[in-house]
């Protein structure tokens, strides 16, 4: 059952997640006001730009630290996110994605900080970012990239957050799942555009969404395929359909050998 029913109104999975995200955010904001967070950012080293590596020929992998998810429940008992990220980097990952949402994904900003310290490749804060405060958090806790999901950023919010991300040195991964969302991502000027195979309102996964939407992404923007990879052949398909970068979570955390798996994903996609 992907929709819950509250007081006669259908609330999608994503709305349910966002309710929790906003509650937790209010708590953090009451502990550390925005001004203080901004002051802390002044002491943080400059971010890394992931785009030059993503633009190189071949496929880049963003490997994700993912403990659990709304669609699958518990995925892996990750007690050492930094160690996992190091294995990903040794396998050839171009960046690490860290899910920082706590309630549904079991992640945290502490995971982000631990991964940041452990690797010297760019790190993505993957969360449900809908406020400037969360972008400042991403910067302070060591992210180089931050996810902006078009579906949850109506009106001018997408442009505003994209502008702020750039201003504070973060590269935004702007994520779409439909033609309309993709148009908004392109019009907002996103350089790094993700097409998520997972419909976040229903949790259905359809990898071919990338194949259908990729012609709509202008030349020169970096194209990221997100979700739904179960093995090397899926990465190779995504790359063949036009993805420069593939973001993989579940298949890597369940693989038992994350370093070799990343290497194998890259090898098979580039030799097909
Ligand atoms: O993974 C979920 O079930 C999920 C549900 C609702 C919102 C977001 C969700 N996942 C976030 C992601 O985008 C994925 O973690 C990421 O793309 C990797 O996906 P996968 O390789 O399929 O684990």
UniProtKB/TrEMBL annotation:
Transmembrane segments: none annotated. It is an enzyme of class 4 (lyase). The keyword Ribonucleoprotein does not apply. Residues 14-263 form the Indole-3-glycerol phosphate synthase domain. Pathway: Amino-acid biosynthesis; L-tryptophan biosynthesis; L-tryptophan from chorismate: step 4/5. Its EC number is 4.1.1.48. InterPro entries: Aldolase_TIM (IPR013785), Indole-3-glycerol_P_synth (IPR045186), Indole-3-glycerol_P_synth_dom (IPR013798), Indole-3-GlycerolPSynthase_CS (IPR001468), RibuloseP-bd_barrel (IPR011060). GO terms for biological process: L-tryptophan biosynthetic process. The keyword Lyase applies. Keywords: Amino-acid biosynthesis, Aromatic amino acid biosynthesis, Decarboxylase, Lyase, Tryptophan biosynthesis. GO terms for molecular function: indole-3-glycerol-phosphate synthase activity; phosphoribosylanthranilate isomerase activity. It catalyses: 1-(2-carboxyphenylamino)-1-deoxy-D-ribulose 5-phosphate + H(+) = (1S,2R)-1-C-(indol-3-yl)glycerol 3-phosphate + CO2 + H2O. HAMAP family: IGPS_B. Belongs to the TrpC family. This is Indole-3-glycerol phosphate synthase.
